[in-house]
Amino acid sequence: MSEVSRRDFLKSAGLVGVGAAVAGLAGCGSNTTSSNGSSEDASAVPYPVGVHEADVLVIGGGIAGCTAARRAMAKGASVIVVDKGLWGHSGTSGINWGHDTETNEWSDDDGSGTIAFWCMCHDGMPDQTFALALCQAVHKARPDATTEQVGSILERTPDNHPASLNAVAPFNGDHGCFPRYFAQSVKRLGAEIHDRTNILDVLLDEGGNVAGAVGLNLKTGEASVFRAKTVVMAMGSFAWISGWNGMSPYTIAGPENTGDGHRILIQKGLAMRDMEQEPFDNVQWTPIGIRQGMGSTGGAITNHTLLLNKNKERITTRIDTPPEGRYYGNAELMRLCVKTILDGDATENGGFYVDARNFADPTNNRYYRRCGENQMRALGYEMPDYVEVVPEQWETAGRPFNYSTTAETEIPGLFYAASGQGSWFGMAFFGAYGTGFMAGEGAADKAAELSAASAIPWDQVNGILGDAYSLLDAEPENGIRSTIVFRKIQEAYWSGLGPIRNEEGINATLAELDRIESEDIPKMFVPSKSKQMNSDWLRAIEAKSLITCARGVAQAALIRKETRGAHCRTDYPALDNVNWLKNTKVQLVDNAWVSEVVDIDDSIISKEILATIIPDFGIDITVKPN
Amino acid sequence: MAEIITAKVLRYDPSTDDAPWFQDFQVEWVEDPSGIMTALQVLHAINYDQEQIGYDYCCRSGLCGRCSMLIDGKAALACWTPMTPGDHTFEPLPKFPVVKDLIVDRSRAYERFIEANTSIQTVNPIVNLPDIDYNLYWNTLERLNMCRECMCCYSVCPKLQDKGSNWKDFSGPGALMAIAQRYLDTEDEADRLAQAVYSGLFICDQCGECNKVCPSYIAIVDIIAQMQEDATTRGLQPSGTAEFM
Predict the structure, then answer these.
(1) Predicted ipTM?
(2) Which long-range contacts does A502-510 make (Cβ < 8 Å, 24+ apart)?
(3) Nearest to B61 among A151, A256, A291 (CB)
């Protein structure tokens, strides 16, 4: 924030002249010495600010963040981890459902054999240079063995073997990774943990290098500045953006997943890749209160005979038998589901049936096998043989467009870790663990080269905190409660950017976002002025993230004029490997969106070869169910 | 006329309130083909349609453990508790300081999990995943995996209540299960039985209150009983506890 706008804020908040007196509190920390250059010093900030410093700051405590923290600590770095939710239980990782794992750690090669499968699964879109580094990192990081060493016990089969069989294969799957054990490990290893702390923004020094981040302790409303040589952003998805189904959004993700990280990257001017990719799965329709996720049973994870249309016919018979030895990916299944809906073959509530008659069978994924038993014991609900499920978003795949092989973004010292492109085939674990490992290593290595963290840019801190506290203080006339504005953004997103998209619908969503921003946001207010765990205040802060992410998705969805991955356009229903082996690139430049499509990086596997191995169907399948 | 749930919610904001106070909210019963409306839905209805209340949640399907609280006097996960029309009380989980309304700080129990150290202790790092007897895996270890760290067991354990509290000597039911997980698996090479004894294994008198509230249906008492028996066989049963140390 500029000096002028900072003064404007102080004036509007009635704080002019008060700043110096209050700011004395900021001097309590040991690292609040004034910075050089044009940055102001701590005494100019009219808020009590605690300052915390480490070599590496990791933002986010899920699989990606915990892996980054563990790797950075293993390399000798001191680490702070900040998480918005409850430590070990935050966001989507924090659901602790016993995550599926994917690994290539027993493969004969160092990961280079994995990349063809990876690119095929993700419809040819991975950045191959980065994807190779990712596959090599996972091979080195040994996620399955580490998962078990840290505490989870992965699935064993009725003949006592690990489900993965420790098999020598380019990809190998197992089930039952509980991120809570990684979180425990991070704490035991001595990371300084700040949970229930919402990062508002990342700080940059005058040279554009990362300097740290500023956040709010949600338990008290106090501000914290985190100063670090390098920063790993592992803030999860923005899947909480998706609609409203009566009691919570149409998403399997956690309430922390509001895209704060994506918003920060976009507002710092970074180009984003493939923002249109928004993977959906299916969840139980009733009991409404639980909405247990069980869509993957229909396609990807065990076999593909369980997901049925309204007539209880397999929807996967719409396409030919998949290539030998592979199952359907999550995005392919999503396209089949969308086509089923478009053909009028969906159930009464817009979804499908899952054949749950043999759910308890030991050959099924461990997570699904106790669904019926648990619902009976806890709720007295007898799960029917055929469970109705409806589409829900579970992940977002957009990520920084330019991303080094050490997981560094274009902002020097800012590393990024997320499931990213691993998500739309359903291999979120591989992406999150691998990028976490890469980012943790990269951030520790870079931090080791730097003699000191950059000075705290207090003018930025002041502006960021001013924005956040003014949202709490605002008393507009005819105010609209922040949670209501938040839900309007979710509904606007769902209407045009849900699983079924076309140009008209996307533009209608953009028009509604314009209206919300011009009419509703200025009236947004927080009824309670308590700084203590004020969820309305948090939603007011997060509304900006949701809108920014929605706009990014819309820009990318408009320019991908085909159906591919987890992006279904009714006006462009075909998957087109001749013209569309491309990535979308969207960027906010001088407050205006710039978007373009860019040829994929096919430096390892050529486009011609990719075109022969990618399952070639969009939502234009014509074969009807048997 | 639609049926109504009257939710009596114990409110407390330590930054503004002198003391906790009950507030009544009327919530319309939601018709659902399953006949089930969960306690979490009631809280959502209050928070989104009436006024902000402090409650924590994430997964909505009995997995994450964040929405643990006292519902009608029983420690439970809100998302995993079916409601009926009529009066219901919502209170924060006892034995923990209140952050706001129904949100508590469960650190004092969580620290016992950290202390238990669930990482597998091996002389050499794990290279391949070993075979595990299927019955042990599915009926015991997999359930221990599913501990939600919801801390319901801590809030009901008589050994951790005010009178005769054993927070000093007893790691509590949840952390003992974390130790048991390593004692029972086939990979850990540390003396986890001795660790369980040092963590207050024999303070438990197998009353069974924890079993009643565990949302993951872990047979806590049975596992403790087995460890007590094994420890006794090994001569690890203490003769008493120190008055103060």
Answers:
(1) 0.97
(2) A502/A569, A502/A570, A502/A571, A503/A558, A503/A569, A503/A571, A506/A554, A506/A557, A506/A558, A507/A558, A509/A550, A509/A554, A510/A551, A510/A554
(3) A291
